[in-house]
């Protein structure tokens, strides 16, 4: 259902959630206002109370920096001088130091050279798992979009000011999906009953009574009637921590993450340059209302899939804006129930990368690798491509608005795909984007819909759950029929089918779980064409013989092409530079126009003299100039210097 309020005219900027118009249905929108609901509430604070750290260039700075952090009080800035310093140990800002900032000299004058053996140069916050109480606290009422009050049986486990994780039951009901519900799928058995649900949201407890929790932000997604939800507490929260104005060079060490931020609420990373990590530049885990802005991440040293410039896991209502992430694979990866975040006005480009046997890689923006992300906004970015890769499961209700997605490298004759909406992806709004370059060599169609997971080049038939045509692997059940040890035995498939395209020469990782949804066990087995699967390498102790089981086929299962992806994707007003036009079927309807932004009320001051909106399909820039698109956003201008 679309809003009935007046539609915004021309490129008038967004003014309030109730005034959003244009072609995007109301049900797919949320409030992404920076400083209000997204990013650090009230904006990143400007702190002036300095603890100056005396450092000698080219000597080890770790001990002195850590000592200053340990002595700091809320509101303090641990201030580092200009110069190049060595780090022989990682720096930590623990939970007890919430409210402090670590800051170098401006304009990249403070450089930390990470020495061999250091895994994480800077760790912000202290990590933990949200597993208390062990089975969560059931939410009795309030599980609906916009709700700011949750009714629970008891609030004894929750503290005002703490951050909690809400886990929502997945949608796997065949009748509901056929009636239009979005399937929420994990191919490796993430399961609400097993407390590993893939659909989550982080919130802060603002107030409580004996039976209610007042939360912020409100529930962002309209969850289907009849599906349950529960809340989990963490033992602490890492609040109001910031890292600013540093260069972190990891060339001499096999660094896992340049900055590792865990369980942060209202935390930020600002004006940081990270070079030469082996895995991740900035790693976010379980964040709420955080920000990464004005950063530059370059040059990943290692190969393999466990790496990215910016990794965002299980993070809600955070803002990633005005960054440059290049020569990294992928540049950005979003995972594990990340919800209601904004990725705005970043430059994402990789190459030259000499990884995987010399192939050049161009996955720059992966909007979903681990499920189930939703209500994330991607606006104003310059990126080679965007992909919902479907590897572990799906995503829904993301919005891609006014980006330039070019499928190329700025100064090399290399081209790649533009979009990939893979299996389990639903209700994506793809509106007002500029696509390709006039000299792109990959044909004129920028869209790919419904293919199976990243990493394969085939599909085996078609699935269309909305009309009752499910994957052959869907809801496979089995029985443990032989148990020769705690980790070896045989299972016999009783419902469902073996994976399409799998034969007796291909081992496949399977997850088995008892029928009540608990006790997950992984096995690596040959999924031969038959009902019996033998294995000897279960990852956890097996249940007793005769136990009914659920079975998931992993990333190599569910190989049919998902035809419902295209059915639910909204394509509107996207200009294709290869053809020179907006396709007629994507034309706006009478009375529909596009706001300048879906999250900024007015032109941001940091845009300076640059035009806003940056990308306008009605008034495109001169795409025959390969650099013109970069010059439309501040990060792009810095990138070209």
Per-chain topology:
Layout: E1 49-52, H1 62-71, E2 76-79, E3 83-87, E4 91-93, E5 101-103, E6 110-114, E7 122-124, E8 132-141, E9 149-152, E10 163-168, H2 174-178, E11 199-208, E12 212-216, E13 229-233, E14 238-239, E15 242-249, E16 257-262, E17 264-265, E18 268-275, E19 280-285, E20 291-293, E21 296-298, E22 308-313, E23 319-321, E24 324-326, E25 332-335, E26 342-344, E27 347-349, E28 365-368, E29 373-374, E30 377-379, E31 382-383, E32 386-388, E33 395-396, E34 399-401, E35 404-405, E36 419-421, E37 425-426, E38 429-431, E39 434-435, E40 462-463, E41 476-483, E42 489-495, E43 507-514, E44 520-526, E45 532-535, E46 548-552, E47 561-562, H3 564-568, E48 570-572, E49 575-576, H4 634-639
Parallel strand pairs: 1-2, 2-5, 3-6, 4-7, 5-15, 6-15, 7-16, 14-17, 15-18, 16-19, 18-20, 18-21, 19-22, 20-23, 21-24, 22-25, 23-26, 24-27, 25-28, 26-30, 27-31, 28-32, 29-33, 30-34, 31-35, 32-36, 33-37, 34-38, 35-39, 38-48, 39-49, 40-47
Antiparallel strand pairs: 8-9, 8-13, 9-12, 10-11, 10-13, 11-12, 41-42, 41-46, 42-45, 43-44, 43-46
Descriptive account of the structure:
The protein is globular, with a radius of gyration of 25 Å. A hairpin with a 5-residue loop joins strand 41 and strand 42. The protein folds into 3 domains: 51-127 and 238-435, Single-stranded right-handed beta-helix, Pectin lyase-like (Pectate Lyase C-like); 132-233; 476-559, Thrombin, subunit H. With 641 residues, the protein is mainly β. The model is unreliable at 1-19, 354-359 and 500-505 (pLDDT under 50). It contains 4 helices and 49 strands. It has a 21-stranded parallel sheet that branches.
């Amino acid at each position: 259902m679309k809003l009935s309020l007046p539609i915004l005219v021309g490129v008038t900027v967004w003014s309030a959630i109730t005034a959003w118009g244009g072609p995007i249905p109301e049900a797919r929108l949320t409030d992404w206002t920076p400083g209000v609901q997204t990013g650090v509430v009230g904006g990143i604070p400007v702190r002036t109370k300095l603890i100056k750290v005396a450092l000698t260039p080219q000597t080890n700075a770790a001990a002195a920096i850590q000592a200053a952090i340990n002595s700091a009080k809320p509101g303090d800035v641990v201030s580092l001088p200009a110069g190049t310093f060595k780090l022989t140990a990682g720096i930590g800002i623990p939970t007890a130091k919430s409210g402090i900032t670590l800051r170098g000299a401006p304009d990249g004058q403070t450089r930390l050279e990470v020495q061999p053996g250091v895994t994480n140069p800077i760790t912000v916050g202290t990590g933990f798992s949200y597993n208390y109480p062990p089975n969560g606290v059931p939410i009795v009422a309030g599980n609906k979009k916009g709700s700011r009050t949750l009714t629970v049986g008891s609030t004894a486990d929750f503290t005002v000011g703490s951050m909690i994780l809400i886990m929502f039951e997945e949608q796997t009901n065949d009748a509901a999906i056929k009636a239009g519900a979005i399937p929420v799928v994990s191919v490796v058995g993430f399961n609400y009953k097993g407390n590993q649900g893939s659909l989550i949201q982080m919130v802060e407890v603002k107030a409580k009574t004996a039976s209610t929790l007042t939360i912020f932000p409100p529930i962002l997604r309209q969850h289907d009637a009849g599906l349950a939800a529960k809340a989990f507490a963490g033992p602490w929260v890492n609040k109001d921590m910031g890292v600013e104005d540093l260069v972190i060079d990891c060339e001499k060490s096999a660094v896992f993450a340049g900055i590792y931020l865990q369980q942060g609420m209202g935390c930020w990373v600002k004006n940081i340059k990270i070079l030469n990590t082996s895995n991740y530049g900035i790693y976010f885990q379980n964040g709420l209302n955080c920000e990464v802005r004005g950063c530059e991440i370059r040059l990943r040293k290692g190969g393999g899939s466990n790496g990215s410039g910016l990794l965002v896991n299980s993070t809600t209502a955070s803002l990633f804006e005005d960054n440059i992430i290049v020569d990294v694979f992928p540049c950005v990866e979003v995972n594990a129930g990340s919800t209601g975040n904004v990725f705005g006005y970043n430059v994402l480009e990789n190459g030259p990368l000499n990884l995987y046997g010399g192939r050049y890689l161009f996955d720059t923006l992966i909007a979903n690798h681990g499920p189930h992300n939703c209500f994330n906004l991607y606006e104003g970015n310059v990126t080679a491509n965007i992909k919902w890769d479907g590897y572990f499961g799906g995503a829904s209700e993301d919005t891609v608005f006014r980006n330039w997605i070019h499928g190329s490298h700025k100064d090399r004759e290399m081209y790649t795909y533009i979009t990939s909406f893979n299996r389990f992806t639903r209700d994506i709004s793809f509106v007002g984007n500029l696509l390709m370059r006039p000299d792109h060599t990959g044909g004129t169609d920028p869209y790919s819909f419904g293919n199976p997971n990243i990493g394969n080049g085939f599909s085996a038939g078609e699935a269309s759950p909305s009309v009752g045509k499910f994957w052959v692997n869907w809801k496979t059940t089995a029985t443990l029929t032989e148990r020769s040890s705690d980790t070896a035995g045989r299972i016999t498939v009783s419902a469902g089918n073996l994976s399409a395209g799998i034969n007796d020469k291909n081992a496949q990782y399977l997850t088995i779980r008892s029928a009540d949804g608990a006790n997950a066990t992984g096995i690596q087995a040959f999924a031969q064409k038959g009902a019996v699967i033998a294995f000897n390498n279960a990852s956890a102790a097996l249940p007793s013989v005769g136990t009914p089981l659920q079975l998931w086929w992993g990333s190599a299962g569910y190989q049919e092409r998902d035809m419902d992806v295209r059915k639910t994707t909204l394509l509107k007003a996207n200009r294709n530079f290869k053809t020179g036009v907006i396709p007629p079927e994507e034309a706006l309807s009478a009375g529909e126009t596009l706001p300048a932004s879906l999250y900024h009320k007015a032109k941001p001051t940091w845009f300076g003299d640059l035009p806003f909106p940056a990308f306008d399909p009605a008034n495109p820039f001169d795409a025959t100039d390969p650099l013109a698109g970069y010059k439309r956003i501040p990060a792009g201008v810095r990138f070209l210097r």
